[in-house]
């Protein structure tokens, strides 16, 4: 099998999408006969960096520096004219435009992306139905069952839309650090209780809840790691001595903060999923599991696919500072419970390595390459009527709020489908 991976943004990047795509590509490439990484590079030095990050031979994309939309457009437009495009058995991408161009020029496509585009931008639904249903579109890989259900609702075959969740790098957790030692390394007293968040520090992650909880629990130190400057969260935390804002940290330094946590926090907020749509089953879930520290998160449909209340995490009702504080109290006042949840999380993490994800994807691609493309359910009047109605709702929302993402509709009582690659 020969795969041409194509990523539409420059490398190296600290964005989660770059980490997911390049890490998956590196592990998946090790299982193939030949693989390349098609990526925009400004010069030879940038190509060297991209090769180091991806671990693959770089095929420079003809996409000069400039606006992201133009770069993405040129990545797709020029891709079919590369020799590696014709040599590959398929193109592996996370960009819909690139996928469409690959299909137009006769190539097969595997598409790997986390967003539930059919729900977020309903006008795309019919195009997505036609695109993913194309006979050379071999598989749509989702990172969550939440997103998978949105694609299946279009009438696409179950075998063509699969859920393979993200992972973590075991090497990051080989040298475990005692909590007291980790606290000492980051300048925290050993007996000071800590709630630690890692990731982007911005208003889209639901961190306002953490700030409100900090006001209610001044005896607990809240450490928010991943600041890129003076934003709304930094401003909100300015007058709180028990909130420490920490700049973005590389992986080796980040471990000290993770191990210094009495509680690892995923803000229990609907905002990342419902309002901004940029976070679906966040990547931090998986390395939080592998850290062996207690996890506190919200009962949102994406996170609840992996984290289970009082089994491997504490899940509280979302969007309530009081419920968040109650969860903090429950874990800090019951060390045995916290230790039990942390141990269960560590056990569950073993099925979520990047190597395991790549092996599942490799097996899935081989399966899809050797079986006939399943038929999609044809659209009738009811499907077109629903499409027009949801598109109208989206347009009204866009004109009223200037936000491109339509908040999700309440899901009926559905349960995750059986067609999911579980660890």
Automatic annotation (TrEMBL):
Segments forming domain Glycosyl transferase family: 182-345
Glycosyltransferase listed as a keyword: yes
Statement: the UniProt record of this protein carries the keyword Iron: no
Keywords from the named record: Glycosyltransferase, Transferase
Domain (Glycosyltransferase subfamily 4-like N-terminal) ranges: 24-172
Annotated PANTHER family: D-INOSITOL 3-PHOSPHATE GLYCOSYLTRANSFERASE, GLYCOSYLTRANSFERASE
Name under which the protein is recorded: Glycosyl transferase family 4
Organism: Nitrospirillum amazonense
